[in-house]
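User: Could you check the structure of this?
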Amino acid sequence: MSKTRFELSSVLWFRRSTNEWVLELDGSINDTGLTIRFPQPGTLTPEEAVGLPTLQQSAGWLFHNPDTGVELAEDHPIESGEVPDAENVKEANVGALKEALLDAWKNNAEEEKQNRNLSEQLVRAEARATKLRALLSQHGIAVPDGL
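Assistant: Sure, the predicted structure tokens are below.
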């Protein structure tokens, strides 16, 4: 990576049709042109809108359920009584959801790797079993079907 800084232009404008502020970023990164719009409620002041507060709003609660793993719930799991033994309870804002998603992807990749290793071990074991059956058969030892 040679370039680590990219200049983008920005403008905050009010969209009357939807009664909202829009923070717009425009520019290019390497050869990719982009325009990104972040709408914010029209009830905010312009100074508040540029802070993009709705990106930090909570989508509920993210927590670890000892019985099922990571879960997302609209109501606090302990206070609502739904999961009284919930652990690591935190607000499910953008950052927390991103972290949970990245962890899930990482765990999924590790599980896939373990499954591939197990599959490879199974193939090798089946090959050894086939050779063993052939060897036993050469010596006149009957091998029951299914073994």
